[in-house]
Amino acid sequence: MKKLSSKALKEFLDEKAALYETPTFLDTDPIQVPAQFSVKEDAEIAGFLTATIAWGNRKSILTNSHKLMNIMGQSPYDFVMNYNADKHLELFEGFVHRTFNSTDLAYFIKGLQHLYTQHKTMENYFTQFSDFPRINDSITHFKQDFFNLPHPKRTTKHISDPSKNSAAKRINMFFRWMVRSNKNGVDLGLWTKISSNQLSCPLDVHSGNVARKLGILLRKQNDAKALLELDTALRKLDATDPAKYDYALFGLGVFEKF
Q1: DSSP-assigned states of every residue in 100-168
Q2: Which residue stretches of the chain are H helix?
Q3: Are 28 and 36 in contact (CB under 8 A)?
Q4: How far apart are the first and last CA of the chain?
Q5: Over the range 48-63, which residues count as b (16 or more CB within 10 Å of their CB) and which as e?
Q6: I need a surface site. Which of 78, 125, 170, 217 has the fewest CB within 10 A?
Q7: For residue 47, which of 180, 223, 144, 229 has the smallest C-alpha distance?
Q8: Sequence-distant (≥ 6) Cβ neighbours of residue 249 within 8 angstroms
Q9: What is the pTM of this model?
Q10: How many Cα neighbours within 13 Å face the side chain of 212?
């Protein structure tokens, strides 16, 4: 593709972001799972667990995310706060999404129970990092705190670590869901203490490939260094809301085969 000028690139990506950030996006996207809940704590837990398993086939992600909500009686917060392994563990038997299985799920519920007991909401936890230029940089701290309880070693792989050069796509997607405004009927806008200018664009194979074709990402790997490079480029296009371009990059890649 012919390299666009900065002005033309911004116009192109703004147009594509507006095209895809509409309520119809919910029809095929995992954000539909937390979007069904009106209580913030329910939406946080539903969003976090859905984002955790959001890799692979999208239909499978949706099926298993809704299955998780059914396991929790469609009341994620109540389930987490009243979780008792002796009473509830058998509910998880047979649950698996790729490499995330019932053992991992059991620890995630226990970890969430501890987090909510300590901080009341996930927003409260992440607010301690509200002065970070990029909320992505809080993820390493979160991973350390989340696995502060005795845990199966295998389960730690299900939370990415930017300090180990991960782009942490799934948690950055979760942040986008929670922080960006609901004005266009997609993201939830539930967190008010973290600003949209602190968000990173979730970097995956689709957004990465499109960004490279557009010349705003040169690094070949989809890792933490590539995310920083992409963040820097997108902030030049819109410093207040760089993550809106996730819709443009993802939409171009998935729906337009750009």
Answers
A1: EEHHHHHHHHHHHHHHHHHHSSHHHHHHTTTTSS-GGGGHHHHHHHHT-S---GGGGGGS--GGGTB--
A2: 6-20, 32-35, 40-52, 58-71, 76-81, 85-88, 102-119, 122-127, 139-146, 169-179, 205-213, 224-237, 245-254
A3: no
A4: 10
A5: bbbbbbbbeeeeebbe
A6: 78
A7: 180
A8: 13, 201, 206, 207, 210, 211
A9: 0.96
A10: 14
pLDDT in tens, 186-198: 999 999 999 999 9
Query: Residue 245: which residues within 8 A CB-CB, separation 6 or more?
Result: 13, 17, 201, 234, 237, 238
Q: How far apart are CA 258 and CA 246, in angstroms?
A: 14
**Which residue carries 């948690």 as its tokens?**
171
